[in-house]
Amino acid sequence: MLEIEQSVRDYVKDFNFNLVSKDSTGSASPMEQLKKDYIDAIDEITDKYAKMNDDFVKMDKMQQQHYIDTLKEKGVLFKDHDDGTISFEEMKNAELLAKQKEYNDKALQYHRELQEEKWAIDEAMRTQNFEALQQALDDEYVATQQSYDLKKELLTEYQDAVMNSHFNSQQLIWDAASAGIDKLQEGISGLLQGTMTITQAFSKYG
Questions:
Q1: What is the average pLDDT across 171-198?
Q2: Are 184 and 133 in contact (CB under 8 A)?
Q3: Which pLDDT tens digit goes with each residue over 134-181?
Q4: d(Cα 126, Cα 129) in Å, to the nearest integer?
Q5: Rounded distance, CA 37 to CA 21, Å?
Q6: pLDDT tens-digit profile of 31-76?
Q7: Cα angle vertex 85, ends 81, 86, to 5°?
Q8: In angstroms, rounded to a whole number, what is the distance separating the alpha carbons of residues 158 and 138?
Q9: Three-state helix/strand/coil letters over the chain
Q10: Which neighbouring-strand residues pair with 28?
């Protein structure tokens, strides 16, 4: 029965994860992956202690007594119940709390480091999606970063990607593409100098 329940649980878990948004490489966002890893870790802990009890129930009396003696010898906290089962709630809860703390700490770190925003920006760069990049590089993100070098790196990298794309696939209309690149460069310069916002900078290219 336990294996059936775990199998159904894992099926539902995998199904739900397969529905979350993925980037062009097939990877989920940092937070979605962190959530999945956390759920997998919780299930692994729960399954471990459930199996320990299941194994105990299947033992004969002599094996059970040896098992209990070994647990005591190793300092394992457990409860031996009258119905012939055994439980390890204290140790299980300690592991679950530790895993929850680890998840909370990482989630806070991801939020502080703007991991979701960086993931969206990387995807926009990878797919050369100007509209998505404009949305990802909003004023709040740039203001939070407060980094001239970061803004320059992100925007000039996108400019180079656009230039390479036009040069490789649209040589015949290079003059028109170059005019658009010049506008983007003007917008980048204005953003880096603080004379315009990210939205205004991108509107130079549109």
A1: 45
A2: no
A3: 777 665 566 565 555 555 566 666 566 655 654 444 443 344 344 444
A4: 8
A5: 16
A6: 999 999 999 999 999 999 999 999 999 999 999 999 999 999 999 9
A7: 75
A8: 15
A9: CHHHHHHHHHHHHHHHHHCCCECCCCCECHHHHHHHHHHHHHHHHHHHHHHHHHHHHCCCHHHHHHHHHHHHHCCCCCEECCCCCEECHHHHHHHHHHHHHHHHHHHHHHHHCCHHHHHHHHHHHHHCCHHHHHHHCCHHHHHHHCCHHHHHHHHHHHHHHHHHHHHHHCHHHHHHHHHHHHHHHHHHHHHHHCCCCHHHHHHCCC
A10: 22
Phi-psi category of 75—alpha, beta or left, where left has phi over 0 and alpha has psi -120 to 50?
left
Let me know the angle formed at the C-alpha of 204 by 29 and 175, rounded to the nearest 5 degrees.
105
The dihedral over CA atoms of 99, 57, 1, 77, expressed in degrees to the nearest 10, equals -10
| Paired tokens of 189 | 């310069």
The reported pTM is 0.66
Q: Give the Cβ contact number of residue 176 at 10 Å.
A: 10
Beta bridge partners of 22: 28
Question: In this predicted model, what pLDDT tens digit does every residue of 64-120 receive, in sequence order?
Answer: 999 999 999 999 999 989 898 999 999 999 999 999 999 999 999 998 888 888 888
